[in-house]
Amino acid sequence: MSEHTPEDSTLFDPEHVAQARAAIAAADDLGLWVRRFELLGDPTRLRILLGMHRSPGICVSDLAAALSMTATAVSQALRLLRNQGWVAVERDGKKMTYRLDDEIVHRLLHDLGATHATPVGTARAAHTHSAHTHTEQVPHD
What we know:
Number of strands: 5
Helix content: 40-55%
Oligomer: single chain
Structural class: alpha+beta
Order of helices and strands: HHHEHHEEHEE
Distance between the termini: 58 Å
Number of helices: 6
Strand order of the largest sheet: 1-3-2
Low-confidence stretches: 122-141
Strand content: 15-25%
Mean pLDDT: 81
Shape: elongated
């Protein structure tokens, strides 16, 4: 199915145009990607995600301290991220702990340069998320 526009007669490379149109038409869940980038585009939410990525199972007060934010502000952002399905919450005694729970967001954070915490004195660290398990090699200083 080819859609033509009045500008088609002035195209430099109709094949490029056709390929670009095909890519856009083939993109599943374009609205979902727009929403992801909207959420990731907020510096506060991105910082929260990076903090949780590095320290899964962190509680709101500890995350707030790490980010120099109020617990209320962190809680509000976490609520939005939970509603999106990116963050999971678990009760740990009297406190609630949070961890990243979305594989696509996890990969995007790695693309941004996020890494996993390494226990002191070890050369390798294994870290498990609910969606996957992987091991990272950590260079020695």
